[in-house]
Amino acid sequence: MFWNGSCSQGTTLDCNDNIACTTDSCDPVLRCLHTQDNTKCNDNLFCNGAETCASSGCLPGAPPSIDDGVACTTDSCDELMT
User: Fold this and answer.
1) For 8, which of 3, 22, 28, 81 could close a Cys bridge (C-beta 3.0–4.6 Å)?
2) Closest CA to 77 of 69, 67, 8, 10
């Protein structure tokens, strides 16, 4: 709820920022808060890295290093083998 600059009884303040990876809430002093939660971006796939939450939504992660240091091998990441 929002009333005279703070959350309290009165007209409902819509704090939804429409970003799936944030938790939206109303604070009596700070008004709308949008807390980023990286766990909401996790797709549970190792090979595409750890996703993170940003002000624009989920961002892809950096893929893990899979180079085994052997020039004559083809290196790849297999979700079924991780």
Assistant:
1) 3
2) 67
Go through 31-66 and write b for each residue having 16 or more CB atoms within 10 A of its CB, e for each that does not: eeeeebeeeebeeeeeeeeebebeeebbeebeeeee
User: Which phi and psi (to 5°) does residue 67 adopt?
Assistant: -70, 120
3-state helix, strand, coil in the chain (%, to 5): 5, 30, 60
pLDDT digits (tens, 9 = 90+) for 7-51: 666 666 788 999 999 999 988 777 889 999 999 999 999 998 999
Would you call 21 exposed, middle or buried from its count of C-beta atoms within 10 A (0-12, 13-18, 19+)?
Answer: buried
Give the global pTM. Answer: 0.63
The H or E element that residue 31 is part of is strand 31-36
